[in-house]
Amino acid sequence: xxxxxxxxxxxxxxxxxxxxxxxxxxxxxxxxxxxxxxxxxxxxxxxxxxxxxxxxxxxxxxxxxxxxxxxxxxxxxxxxxxxxxxxxxxxxxxxxxxxxxxxxxxxxxxxxxxxxxxxxxxxxxxxxx
Length: 129
Hints:
Order of helices and strands: EEEEEEEEEEE
Distance between the termini: 40 Å
Strand content: over 45%
């Protein structure tokens, strides 16, 4: 089973940029579709970005599109989330997640939380004005 560890969270001001990283171990990282989710105390876990196992396809919801970028480096077993133009509402605990996807196409990824079977412990991002 793959293990995931997020890092890079912290304090930021509105308009700032921050990059999160997720280190994977214990599994064939290149066969997993990956995603970032976030959660606050008041909301359910929310999809932020997804990327296919090959990295050729990614998608993000409108709430972060144009501000966030998801990428991966399969050689380094790393997933990234570049966040820019941060807003107060981006404050949350951010989780990376893995979906076993040995037969998926290189362009497949999903925002369906139930498809993700491995999760990191989360990293806190706090945005203040």
